[in-house]
Design a protein that fits this description.
about 525 residues; mainly alpha; two-stranded antiparallel ribbon; 2 strands
Length: about 525
């Protein structure tokens, strides 16, 4: 059987097993959701009706989110509709959450990321980095380079899009090198430890790199918004970057060491990799007008996102211009302004009409992930209602008493571990919506700064390195057939433990430095 045929067969087998697991989980969850709803209504008779009803709705949503019984966005919409039907909140307050500034941050960021993909800018960046020096000759340097590219790109575009773009490049390099190696009587590298390390680095690098900026992953905007609403404190773009960038750098060093240690490459040189990358770059052609315009829009977004924070540092928080920027140049406004440039900046003339086509058409822009936006709006509603009805306070006091946590450190550890465990079997966005509303009230109940546990819970919701179901990036690379389940489990468990330790220690140390 040819190398490509073996890879296809292996991928088909892993995908089939994954689909069967997902199907069973969804059927069980579909039945358990209503049961959880009814049980919570029965056992919470001592609470006021709005708290009872909201707790029941939340139980249903958690079960269906964890099991993915129906699409996550559909569960989110059903939950907020039930809140209106059961009298937890009125329709204006509930549906008004979709006018939240963060919704427009999502929208603008997604449109810019879509333009990067449409015009191939992300792929060009990746291939350019891989062509530097002799990076792709060395197995270890190739793994590290792919991880660095994944981390850098995922800071501004979704983790899933980053992996979807890098995955075929990685597969191509493995196949090119393996073909040469087998022709010379060597090992089939498509089933090697090096290939496993490369695939896992693409997935894990994207997951940790998204933490660099708040827009790097949807769950981070969701979690940050929930934290800000429940604590009354804001974390701007610059503060987030200053807090998490040092942590990501440490995590990346740890990740590189772990993957290359547990999956030590069998060869010392990758023959054929340079020729493959050069060929792929040659197919891209020269830098297009669309790529240039996308760079302009992206630079505008980053500039506008960072201006208020830079103004704080340079001019002081009490200056009129800085106050104006904080009030009017919000992240949502900045994202929409930058994204609008993509519809204003033209490409070459289209046909004989003389009219110039925009950098991004609305048809292309409309292909963004609207489900995440709906999920975010619903998560904001549930978080707000938890505070307004007093359910968050009730849950916080109860959990604090039962768990015996009483210090900032123990609550932060609890936040990280809870976020990690839930994210192993639940989507990142759902994990943030589940964990943050629980952790913040616990911190408030014991009288410690709730901002730090809330941010740690948000970050930990993006973890989940053990299983293919933990994150879409994991699922993508697992489908290659190059990542045995045992190796994903082993690498994922080790990095989960070390990553949580870095996250907790780093946030506790860096938050006071940043001023949070």
């Amino acid at each position: 059987m040819k190398l490509e045929d073996r890879n296809v067969a292996a991928a088909a087998g892993t995908v089939g097993r994954q689909e069967r697991f997902d199907s069973v989980r969804a059927r069980i969850g579909l039945a358990l959701g209503p049961v959880a709803f009814a049980l919570v209504l029965l056992v919470t008779g001592g609470l006021e009706w709005p708290q009872r009803a909201l707790a029941a709705v939340l139980a249903l949503m958690v079960v269906w989110w964890v099991s993915e019984a129906i699409p996550l966005a559909a569960t989110a919409l059903l939950g907020i509709v039930l809140c209106v039907l059961m009298g937890v909140g009125d329709e204006d307050a509930v549906f008004g959450a979709f006018g939240n500034d963060t919704v427009f941050t999502f929208l603008g960021g997604f449109v810019i990321a879509r333009s990067m993909t449409v015009h191939g800018l992300d792929r060009r960046i990746a291939l350019r980095v891989l062509s530097v020096g002799t990076i792709v000759r060395s197995p270890a340097r190739t793994v590290i380079a792919f991880g660095a590219i994944a981390a850098a790109l995922s800071a501004f575009i979704s983790n899933t899009a980053t992996v979807a773009m890098l995955f075929p490049i990685g597969i191509g390099i493995v196949r090119a090198v393996s073909a040469i190696n087998t022709e010379e009587g060597g090992q089939d590298l498509s089933r090697s430890r090096w290939a496993t390390a490369l695939m896992l680095m693409i997935a894990y690098g994207a997951s940790i790199g998204g933490l660099i900026t708040p827009i790097g992953a949807p769950h981070q905007l969701i979690g940050r918004d929930l934290v800000e609403k429940q604590t009354g404190k804001t974390v701007n773009f610059v503060e987030w970057v200053l807090l998490f960038t040092p942590l990501v750098l440490v995590m990346f060093v740890a990740l590189s060491f772990i993957l290359l240690r547990l999956n030590r490459p069998e060869v010392k040189e990758l023959r054929g990799a340079e020729a493959y990358v050069a060929g792929q770059r040659g197919e891209l052609g020269s830098f297009s007008r669309g790529e240039t315009n996308t760079c302009v829009a992206f630079a505008a977004a980053v500039l506008l996102w960072t201006l208020p924070g830079i103004g704080n540092l340079v001019l002081g928080a009490d200056r009129g211009a800085v106050l104006w920027m904080h009030e009017h140049l919000t992240e949502g406004v900045a994202a929409i302004l930058a994204a609008t440039l993509l519809f204003l900046l033209p490409l070459a003339k289209a046909g004989g009409s003389g009219r110039r086509a925009p950098t991004l058409t609305w048809t292309e822009a409309a292909r963004i992930d609207w489900g995440v936006i709906l999920l975010f709006g619903a998560g904001t509603v549930i978080g707000s209602l938890s505070s307004e009805t007093g359910l968050a306070h009730t849950m916080g006091n109860a959990l604090a008493g039962h768990l015996g946590v009483s210090s900032l450190t123990t609550i932060t550890i609890l936040a990280a571990v809870t976020g990690l465990i839930i994210s192993e079997t639940t989507s990142n966005t759902a994990s943030a919506g589940i964990v943050v509303p629980i952790v913040v009230p616990i911190a408030v109940a014991v009288g410690v700064n709730p901002l730090i546990p809330g941010l740690v819970a948000t970050a930990a919701a993006g973890y989940g390195f053990m299983l293919p179901v933990s994150t879409p990036p994991n699922a993508i690379v697992y489908g290659s057939g190059m990542v045995p389940m045992a190796k994903m489990l082993r690498s994922g468990i080790v990095f989960d433990v070390i990553g949580v330790a870095i996250l907790v220690t780093g946030v506790l140390l860096m938050a006071p430095v940043v001023g949070l």
